[in-house]
Design goal:
By secondary structure, the protein is of the alpha+beta class. It has 5 domains: 4-102, Zinc finger, CHC2-typedomain (DNA Primase, Chain A, Alpha-Beta Complex); 113-234, DNA primase DNAg catalytic core, N-terminal domain; 247-381, Dna Topoisomerase Vi A Subunit, Chain: A, domain 2 (3-Layer(aba) Sandwich), CATH 3.40.1360; 387-442, no CATH class; 500-653, DNAb Helicase, Chain A (Orthogonal Bundle), CATH 1.10.860. A 5-stranded antiparallel beta sheet has the order 1-2-3-4-5. Strands 13-12-14-15-16 form a 5-stranded mixed beta sheet, sandwiched between helices. Helix 21 (503-514) packs across helix 26. The longest helix has 36 residues, at 588-623. The chain is flat and about 110 Å long.
Length: 658
C-alpha cells in the first residue's frame, strides 16, 4: 500500500509552485482585474474567457462550468491524476524531496500509474538520444544531415535512435526498475513470442511531449529498405498518449504562440524542426492524425481565441500543393469555423514542404512561405471551383453547386458576402445577386436565425447566458450555467445567487475572503441572518468557524474551504475567493471606502427587514384589544429607525455605535 505524503511536504509543494505559472503551461492568461488573471477555460469549450486565476490566493475558478480549486486540483483535473500523483509531479518540478509516512517511500512501488509511465518515457528518451551517437545510428545521422539538421538541432529536439535488436530498450528499462506490464502499458514494448520486445527498432526517434514538456510518446521514422513497417510509426493510444490531443512541438512553441498570437500548423516532425530553426518558432504538427477539434481547443487556449478578441489571432496551415495537400486544406476549412482567429494557408512553389524548402533555398524561404500566406477561405473555394470545366454552362453550374455550400459555412456575414461575390466571378456568372441568394439559401446561420431569436426572447439557451460579442457568454449571465443547487430538490428551481437583491451580500463575502483586513473587525459582528441567501449565510458561518476575518492569516482561506459541508458550498467559497469585485483597480483609500459601503449596505438591508417585520407586529398588536406589547414594539421600532438613519448618514462609524 502506498505511503501517505507528509502534510508539511504537501504544503511546501503548494507554496513553492505558483498557480499562475502552472496554469500558464496550458493556456494564455491575461489581466482580469483585481490582481486576477483570466483565460479560456481548459475544462469546457467557451467563446469568451470565464476562467479566472488568483495568484495571491493560489486558486482558480471558472464561472462557466464551476470548476475550481488550488494548484493541485488544477493539475489533477488537467492531467487526470490522483492527489498523490499531482503532488509528486509538482514536487519534481520544484525540486522538493517528499517524505512518505506509513512505512516510508519505495521508489517504483508507491508512484501512481501515470507517474510511472512518464518516468519510463523520460528514461526511454534519454536512451534513444544516447544511441544516436552509436556506430549503428550512422544511417540516422546521415538522414538528419541530408535534411539540414546538425547535432545541436538533434539535441534541441531530443531526436534519438532505436537500436535494431529485439529488446535493447526493454532490457534497459527493466534494469531501471520498470516492470514488463508498465512497458507494455506505456506502448514502449509489445508482446513477442518469448515475452515483451521493443516496439521501435532500427528507427530515428522523435520524443512527443505534451504542453508541459513531459514525454508522452514517440514518432519513429523508417530508415532501412528492409524495414517492412510504415514510413512513420507512432506510439499507440495509452493512458498518457492520445494522438488527437497532442501537438508535436507545442512545448517549444507555446510561449511564442501566445506572445505573437499566431500558430503555424505543419505536417511532420522535420517540418517543425525546419520552421523553428528558420525562425518560425510558432510551428507545431499533429502526430499521425488529421488536425481536428481537440487540436483546435489547445490552440484556442494559447491564442486566447475568443469572440471578444476581434479575431486578432492567426492560424496558418502549410500543406503540400498536391491533391493530398489540397484535401488536407479542405479538411482544415471545416475546423476553421471553430476558431475566432483568421485562418490562412501557405503552399510553397513546387509543393515543397518546409523541410525540403529550407534545404533547397534556406531559412529565409521558409519565413517567406509563412509570410506569403493566403486566406484559407480563398484557397478552399478556388480548389473546388478548379475541379470543373468552366467553359460550359453545365460546368459552371456544377462549380457553383459544389462551392456555394462551402461559402455558406462562413460565420462572419461580411466575409461570407465578399466570398459569395468572389465566387460569382470565379465561376463566371454575371448575376451576382443570383449567387448571393443561392449562398443565403444554404447558410446554416440564416436558417437558424429564427430559432436563435426565439431563444433570445425566452431568455437564451437552456444553460442561460447573455448575448455578448456574438456568443452566449456565461460570465455575463444572470445566473451561472451550472450553478450549484445547495440542496434544492431535484428538478426544482436553483437559487439565483446573482440576483441584484443579493449583490451586496455577495460583494461583502468576497471582501471578507479576499481582503479580510478591509472589513475587520466589523464583519465578525454580522450574524448569519443578515445574509438572505442561504448559501451566503452558510459561507458566513464557515468564516466564523474559521475564526473570523480578524484571524485571517496565510491558512485562512484553507480553513474556510475545509469547513465546507459539501462540494457545492466548497465551490461557492472558491468562486467568491477568486471572482473580481464589482470595481476596477482602486487606491487603498478607495478600497476602504468600497468595503465600508458594502458593510453598511448589508447591515442597513437587515435593519430595514427588521423594521418591516416590527411594523407588522405593532399593527397586529394595536388591532387586538387588551394587547399590551404594542408600546414595546414601537420603542424597538424607534430605536431601529434611529440606527438606520445613523447608518445612512455616518456610514461605517455607526456600525460601532450599536
Amino acid at each position: 500500500m502506498a505511503g501517505r505524503i507528509n502534510d508539511d511536504d504537501v504544503k511546501a509543494v503548494r507554496d513553492a509552485v505558483p498557480i499562475d505559472a502552472v496554469v500558464a503551461e496550458y493556456l494564455q492568461l491575461r489581466p482580469g482585474g483585481g490582481g486576477n488573471l483570466k483565460g479560456l477555460c481548459p475544462f469546457h469549450d467557451e467563446k469568451s474567457p470565464s476562467f479566472h486565476v488568483s495568484p495571491s490566493k493560489g486558486l482558480f475558478h471558472c464561472f462557466g462550468c464551476q470548476e475550481g480549486g488550488d494548484t493541485l486540483a488544477f493539475v489533477m483535473k488537467m492531467e487526470h491524476l490522483s492527489f498523490s500523483e499531482a503532488v509528486e509531479r509538482l514536487a519534481a518540478q520544484a525540486g522538493i524531496t517528499l517524505r512518505y509516512e506509513q512505512g516510508g517511500y519505495t521508489p517504483g512501488r508507491q508512484a501512481g500509474e501515470r507517474t510511472r509511465l512518464l518516468e519510463a518515457h523520460r528514461a526511454a528518451a534519454r536512451f534513444y538520444a544516447e544511441k544516436l551517437a552509436s556506430p549503428e545510428a550512422e544511417i540516422g545521422r546521415t538522414f538528419l544531415h541530408e535534411r539540414g539538421f546538425d547535432q545541436a538541432a538533434a539535441e534541441h529536439f531530443g531526436v534519438g535512435y532505436a537500436p535494431a535488436g529485439w529488446d535493447h530498450l526493454t532490457r534497459y528499462l527493466r534494469g531501471a526498475g520498470f516492470s514488463d506490464k508498465e512497458l507494455l502499458l506505456a506502448g514502449l514494448a509489445q508482446d513477442g513470442r518469448r515475452g515483451p520486445i521493443d516496439r521501435f527498432r532500427g528507427r530515428l526517434m522523435w520524443p512527443i511531449r505534451d504542453i508541459t514538456g513531459e514525454v508522452v510518446g514517440f514518432g519513429a521514422r523508417r530508415l532501412r529498405e528492409d524495414d517492412n513497417g510504415p514510413k512513420y510509426l507512432n506510439t499507440p493510444e495509452t493512458p498518457i498518449y492520445r494522438k488527437s490531443q497532442v501537438l508535436y512541438g507545442i512545448d517549444l512553441a507555446k510561449r511564442d504562440i501566445a506572445n505573437n498570437n499566431t500558430a503555424v500548423v505543419v505536417e511532420g516532425y522535420t517540418d517543425v524542426m525546419a520552421c523553428h530553426l528558420a525562425g518560425v518558432t510558432t510551428a507545431i504538427a499533429t502526430c499521425g492524425t488529421a488536425f481536428g477539434g481537440e487540436h483546435v481547443k489547445i490552440l484556442r487556449r494559447l491564442l486566447m481565441d475568443s469572440s471578444a478578441s476581434h479575431r486578432a489571432g492567426e492560424v496558418v496551415f502549410t500543406f503540400d500543393g498536391d491533391a493530398a495537400g489540397q484535401k488536407a486544406a479542405l479538411r482544415a476549412f471545416e475546423d476553421d469555423q471553430k476558431f475566432a482567429a483568421y485562418t490562412f494557408i501557405a503552399v510553397s512553389p513546387g509543393g515543397m514542404d518546409p523541410c525540403d524548402l529550407r534545404v533547397a533555398q534556406g531559412d529565409e524561404a521558409v519565413r517567406e512561405l509563412v509570410e506569403a500566406r493566403a486566406p484559407l477561405y480563398e484557397f478552399a473555394v478556388r480548389s473546388l471551383v478548379n475541379r470543373h470545366n468552366l467553359e460550359t454552362a453545365e460546368g459552371r453550374s456544377a462549380a457553383l453547386e459544389h462551392a456555394a455550400p462551402l461559402v455558406a459555412q462562413i460565420k462572419d456575414a461580411a466575409i461570407r458576402h465578399e466570398y459569395a461575390v468572389r465566387l460569382a466571378g470565379l465561376v463566371g456568372i454575371p448575376d451576382e445577386r443570383f449567387v448571393l441568394r443561392r449562398v443565403a439559401q444554404l447558410a446554416p446561420w440564416s436558417r437558424q436565425r429564427g430559432e436563435r431569436n426565439g431563444a433570445a426572447r425566452q431568455g437564451g439557451p437552456q444553460q442561460g447566458g447573455a448575448r455578448h460579442g456574438g456568443a452566449w457568454d456565461p460570465q455575463h449571465a444572470a445566473q451561472p450555467a451550472a450553478a450549484p443547487s445547495f440542496g434544492q430538490p431535484p428538478g426544482g428551481p436553483a437559487l439565483n445567487l446573482r440576483n441584484p437583491a443579493h449583490l451586496g451580500e455577495r460583494e461583502l463575502l468576497k471582501l471578507a475572503l479576499q481582503f479580510p483586513e478591509l472589513v475587520s473587525p466589523a464583519f465578525d459582528a454580522y450574524g448569519e441572518d443578515e445574509f438572505t441567501a442561504p448559501p451566503y449565510a452558510m459561507v458566513r458561518r464557515l468564516i466564523m468557524d474559521a475564526g473570523g476575518v480578524a484571524s485571517a492569516d496565510p491558512s485562512y482561506l484553507g480553513r474556510v474551504s475545509e469547513a465546507a459541508p459539501d462540494d457545492a458550498v466548497r465551490v461557492l467559497v472558491n468562486e467568491l475567493a477568486v471572482e473580481p469585485l464589482q470595481v476596477g483597480r482602486k487606491r487603498q483609500r478607495e478600497m476602504d471606502s468600497y468595503a465600508g459601503s458594502r458593510l453598511v449596505q448589508v447591515r442597513l438591508a437587515a435593519v430595514n427587514r427588521r423594521v418591516q417585520q416590527l411594523e407588522s407586529d405593532a399593527r397586529r398588536a394595536e388591532a387586538q384589544s387588551g394587547n399590551t406589547t404594542a408600546a414595546d414594539v414601537r420603542q424597538e421600532l424607534w430605536t431601529l429607525n434611529q440606527y438606520a438613519r445613523a447608518l445612512r448618514e455616518r456610514g461605517v462609524a455607526a456600525l460601532y455605535a450599536v
